[in-house]
Amino acid sequence: MKTTKKSPAHDRVFSFRYYWHGLPEILYYQIPAKIILFMMFSFAEGILGSIMNLTGIYSVSSGELPSLLRSWYGWAVLITITILFTIYMAFDIIILILLSRNILYNQKKKMKEIISTAIRISRKFINFRGCLIGMYFAVIIPLNTAMIGLRLTKHAVPQFIYSVIRSNHLYMLAYAVLVLVLDFIGIIHVFTFHGVLFDNYSLATSMHESRSLFFKNWKKIVWAYLKFFAMFVLILGVGVISIVVIPYYVSHLIMQARFWYHYLIIMVVIMGLIFIFLFTMIFIQAQAMCLTRVYDECTFAGYQEAQFKTPVLFQKSFRFVVSISLLASLIFGYGGAMIFDDLFPKEYTTEVIAHRGGGDLSTENTVESIRAAIEAGATASEIDVQRTADGHYVIFHDNTLKRLCNDPRTIQELTLEEIKKLRITAPDGHRVRIATLEEILNTAKDEIKLYIELKGKSAGMQMANDVYQMLLERNMVNQVRIISLNANLITQVEKTYPDVETEYLCYIAYGQIESMEVDAIGLEEELATTKRIDDLHDAGKKVDVWTANSFGSIIRFMVSNVDGIITDSVQLAMSIKDGKSDSPDFTRLLRIFFPQI
């Protein structure tokens, strides 16, 4: 990567027309590439499924991870996932870079040649450094999107973990520093793929050369990207105002004519979604074009003036895209307007389950928290049960008493009498006793459903047996669901006591989790995709999501087909659920696609 020559005059490659007029080519190349990536992903799933089937395992979830990682097949699955993801990632990025030069310099390479080159170069990443790069991409995107409250990939930082980080300023500072350091590492290695692809460097050499190139030309690189980014922010703003905002306000002029009002707002949303899809396709490719152009200018590796032409194909394809978009809007808008209230119902049926008794309404896992959940109108209350040293059962979440009682000991180390002497400090400063399971059951009877989580080191069949007997004594078997993070335990409870509802909680899931012998599955919110929810429902399972606390998360699952939301934000969830019928029609429609609104 030598930079001995003086850079030629910068052409207008950062004009939006280079990207917009390249849209037909972007779509032409990207769609087959995505099909190949989908086939690769399906192939990878087949390999992983075969490895699991050889061992007699049909699903892997968070509860089985420790034992899985102590086995040879567990490591085989982990290594296979890492290698396949690395190949997947490398192929996708290389396609973007090759297509960038093809569009920038009008190289007219055929699709077969581009894909063949991408497959050949991708093999260079099947080594230790390549796997590190793959792991980097797998980690850095979820870490960044969690900070800004977005979800851009199927994998994300679990919200129950991020909520703990966000609640502590020191944790949040450490998290932000970690993300910034990882981002900086990615930025200085941004030209690694270019070096491997265009200069035939080894991966190690290309990483070194990328660092050198960045530090020598960082001002030019940063300035070029800032201009590019500002241009696309402007385009996004103009597009949203033109396609969504203005038509939305125009629609208010005909609000009294409900059919035509619904027709117009559905058309607005469809056109907006098409615009966002095309914008995203261009933006992703345009970033690769911007970086490729900067790389060429800084290294003079194949540098040439951008061969810009306004092809006839663009003019035809532009008219075609606009025509198809309008036709789709007209057809779906008319159909949607006919059955608007059926498609976008005014009522939410999702149940609200108060986390740890009453969520943030009261001191967690106490009698008063159950009463608060009842008063708020929650459908159910989730509690955590642990066994004391003398065989009694109390309601407590943590492994130790340190956080709530400033005592380093565990529930299992203390007798019930010793625990009764301890106090939890409520948010308003008053002191509250740790509740027994009997007290909670007596408070909840005929008032609210209970989700009882078998918790801690004492969780086992003895605990399940004792809890079941307490339910029988109070005639509460039909008012309780027993839940657990331990897959083996909860399936054993289901087999032993089929008359009580059971639910398995998980924050990692792979394979046929719907085959588990339980009545319900509790998914950490990042796992709760539409497909997974539908698969579980098709298998006869109920689906709850935990722990959805933010406005966006609660709305997202209210408009989905999950059965229940376990939340700390009970009042917020109830206000959203009760206030749905008062929401404007446009808001009801928009929340299907953008829950945060």
TrEMBL record:
Keywords: Membrane, Transmembrane, Transmembrane helix. It comes from the Bacteria. GO terms for biological process: lipid metabolic process. Gene3D superfamilies: Phosphatidylinositol (PI) phosphodiesterase (3.20.20.190). Pfam families: GDPD, GPDPase_memb. PROSITE patterns: GP_PDE (PS51704), PIPLC_X_DOMAIN (PS50007). Residues 350-577 form the GP-PDE domain. GO terms for molecular function: phosphoric diester hydrolase activity. The keyword Transmembrane helix applies. The chain crosses the membrane at residues 35-60, 72-105, 126-150, 170-201, 222-248, 260-284, 318-340. SUPFAM superfamilies: PLC-like phosphodiesterases (SSF51695). This is Glycerophosphodiester phosphodiesterase family protein.
